[in-house]
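Now for today's protein.

===
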Amino acid sequence: MGNLRHTAIVLAAGKGTRMGTQTAKQYLLLRGKPVLYYSLKAFQDSFVDDIILVAGKDELTYCREEIVEKYGLSKVRAVVPGGKERYHSVYAGLEAVQAQMRSNLTEGKSGVESGAAGLKSAVKTAVYIHDGARPFITQEILHNLRESVEQYGSAVAAMPVKDTIKIADADGFVTATPDRTRTWQVQTPQCFVFDWIYPAYAQLIADEEKLKEQDVHITDDAMAAELFSKRRVHLVEADYRNIKITTPEDLMVAERFLNE
């Protein structure tokens, strides 16, 4: 699946409460720079062509002026508002990618179809959906994901689980022990060809109320693909250091990583 355009969607609209700070975790300072800066810089320095940053509606100006412009992150093509849940923010990012694809078709290109037909004839796009609170993605991880998404149409950063995992019921009693050798801890980026993941998210948004009634909670992009696509999701070994900063202890660990 050659000739792909690569676009990152970086999510920074979360309001996580476990950090216990007034400032959202992605904007806390890590060695003098916002946590969000590090993942944006990794994509800026990579083969990725474009970055879409999804932020809270009250942080759009801050992100543009104090992060994107301040640090010269020229690949950030748009800063768009996210939604209430993570999947709303991902969908907002995908909508921005679609708008950019249409723009790329029409800017100075004569004889090119517009609308849906034109999008189908355009260069295919792979999207790299990433949590802005994961500052330690590396160029090696990104290149491995690129190889997978180009070959399989999907690439999800993950690591084999080190500990034994138990499945419990609502009362805390063990119901199953999955084979540890086949159990993975999922990270981000999670990468998909656009014309695969976008319809899955569009269906997710359409079925949102039905899923709530069924008590189904969409916790990552791979789950959306699993539920609303007949294609298989491919896991790619990443790095145990690719942590998500969620608690004060995570921030301390991140400081140590940067000092090594």
